[in-house]
Amino acid sequence: MANIRKNRSRKSGLPPGTLVHIGEQKIDVPKITLIQYDEQDFLETEDLSLEQCAGKAGGFGGISWINIDGIHDIALMEKAGELFGVHSLTLEDILNTEQRPKAEAYEHYLFFSLKMLSLNGNGSNLLSEQVSLFLGERLVITFQERPGDVFDPLRERIRQGKGRLRKSKADYLAYSLLDALVDSYFGILERLGEEMEDLEELVLRYPAKQTVTRIHNLKRRILVLRRAVWPLRELVSSFEKSESPLLEHSTRLFLRDVYDHTVQIIDGVEVSREIISGLMDLYLSSLSNRTNEVMKVLTIVATIFIPLTFIAGVYGMNFKYMPELAWKWGYPAIWLVMVAAALGMLWYFRRKKWL
Predict the structure, then answer these.
(1) Which of 56, 92, 115, 123 could form a Cys-Cys staple with 228, CB 3.0–4.6 A?
(2) 330 plus 223 within the same structural domain
């Protein structure tokens, strides 16, 4: 897979609506799939052209869901705009993978830009992908950067005809896609929460330098999640309050549930941010406590040896007349005095609860 460096400067000086892909190319050849269904029929087709999708969608009386994996192809995006009446400003937002999540209403369609997040195998990195959604009359188009998403359970529900999806209009499909994406954030938040618990225990037991790196890495992932979730509250709210005839009243009730989930995730993210800040403070406190314990032991050892060093220094002086040097029991007496001094100081430290 070819890598394209993200470079927003490529848009500098160009007129609005100019199509420039900003981001990383994550797939070589775009892939298009089409799912069509109503209450009785279901049809799923892969590897179609946009012209074939437009023809099939136009001649089908039910709901059509077109999914496009790979948005780097400018010609393909222009063709999508021509066939489905997508405004050039919308296409510009689809091609900009650094786009902030947003919702916009046009004359004959609604547009949503969202972030789909996923953790890599060991959970050390949070991957972000832009998902754009076009809602028209009996038509939903999703634009993704690469294959693989959180919508497989939704596809399975459509295949099996479970729930109200096969009986509802296109706006309910758009709601279901939005709900599946929001619900995926709960799993990510839970895994990050488990890692925070492990880090808290690690900080208390052994505050090593590697722990700081893990804390910063976790903080960065929380910030990525926060940037993806915070705009969703406004997005879902505007979707629910939209006066577009494409949105049924019954679907608005379900959107309130998505709004509640979004608020819950935002609260969880903010709590996680507070915990991360607390973990860094806890690390510094634990490190300071360990340093204090080491300094305490060294200070006690040095304090015990101060009088012993004094006694050894006195009797190490080379004076000719020192009566104790001629005593038979002078050497053992000095040892007794030194041991007694050391034990006496240890007893005193324990009594003061310094040990």
Answers:
(1) 115
(2) no
- With tokens 């973990």, the residue in question is 279
Last residue of a domain, one of 253, 285, 317: 285
How many CB atoms are closer than 10 A to CB 179? 17
Distance, in Å, from the CA atom of 31 to the CA atom of 70, rounded to the nearest integer, reads 7
Token readout for 332 is 């053992």
Which element (helix H / strand E) includes 128? strand 126-136
Sheet holding 31-37, edge to edge: 42-46, 31-37, 63-69, 139-144, 126-136, 110-119, 102-105
Please report whether residue 1 resides in a domain.
no
Q: Which two tokens stand for residue 337?
A: 């005095």
- As given in the structure block, the two tokens for residue 343 are 């034990």
pLDDT at residue 342 above 90?
no
Work out the widest C-alpha separation in the chain, in whole angstroms.
122
**Total-model pTM:** 0.78
d(CA 202, CA 121): 22
User: Pairing relation of β-strands 126-136 and 110-119?
Assistant: antiparallel
Assess contact for 95 and 22: CB atoms under 8 A. yes
Domain of 34 in residue numbering reads as 8-285
The residue among 285, 308, 341 that closes a domain is 285
- Both 304 and 201 in one domain: the answer is no
135 and 53 assigned to the same domain: yes
How far is it, in rounded angstroms, from Cα 46 to Cα 114?
A: 24
- In a shared domain, residues 115 and 206: yes
How many domains is the chain built from? Answer: 2
Confidence of residue 28 (pLDDT cuts 50, 70, 90): confident
